[in-house]
Amino acid sequence: MEKWRGKIAVITGASSGIGESLAKTLASNGLIVIALARRVEIVEAIAKTSKGVIHAHKCDVSDLNSIKETFKWIEEKFSSISILINNAGKSTQAKVLDPSDDATDKLNSVIETNFTGLVHFTRLGVRLIKKSQDYGLVINIGSVLDSIIPSQSYSIYPATKFAVRAFSEVIRYELTAEKNEKIRVTTLSPGYTKTNIVVASGAKDDTKKNKNNPYMLPGDISESVIYIMST
User: Fold this and answer.
1) What pLDDT shows up at residue 193?
2) Is residue 139 classed exposed, middle or buried when 0-12, 13-18 and 19+ CB atoms within 10 A define those classes?
3) Cα–Cα separations (whole angstroms), residue 37 to 24, 41, 67, 114
4) Is residue 154 annotated as part of the catalytic site, yes or no?
5) Can you give the pTM of this predicted structure?
6) Cβ neighbours of residue 207 under 8 Å, at least 6 residues apart?
7) 135, 157, 192, 227: which is the annotated catalytic residue?
8) Which residue, 22, 73, 129, 227, has most beta carbons within 10 Å?
9) pLDDT at 95
């Protein structure tokens, strides 16, 4: 971990759950963290009570203009970055075959947050990692649903995570074709993790009553990221 101390890490979806845990963990390990979220006021509060350096900035990864503004700010303030963690994500209970406008809006919001925004965020993020002319790391937070066929409907969510896994391989291939041996790309696919994503999608939180559905905690994911960084 010593090689990452003082380096800049960008984390999306940092206002709660896995993103909040990642921001706190990386900052406490000596990294300069740029924590991004739509609810920037929550991230600002997190930064005030955390050990280490966390810079809060508002960013909506489903909005390309917001992404561009964010990277303009990052480049002007920090010049380059070393680590990019695409963590922002959402789910929905809307049925894929529901033809209503409401379902369309909900499905598009998940696709734009989980995949389309991640694509554009990575494109701009890798450019700033390259600018550092040093070692870099891209970590895409996926899901076990990105590599298994779900036994029940999770709406469009698994499809977006399948896409993230494939996209990660594309980025890895392009970097290899460029003979870039400094930037690594990793997909981290957790199992069911206790965050607010389930409730935010409109479903009930069953982590308390369903003993047959064990879950991970955000800190477990942070520990996995630290392991990835240390290898």
Assistant:
1) 79
2) buried
3) 14, 9, 11, 14
4) no
5) 0.90
6) 194, 213, 215
7) 157
8) 22
9) 93
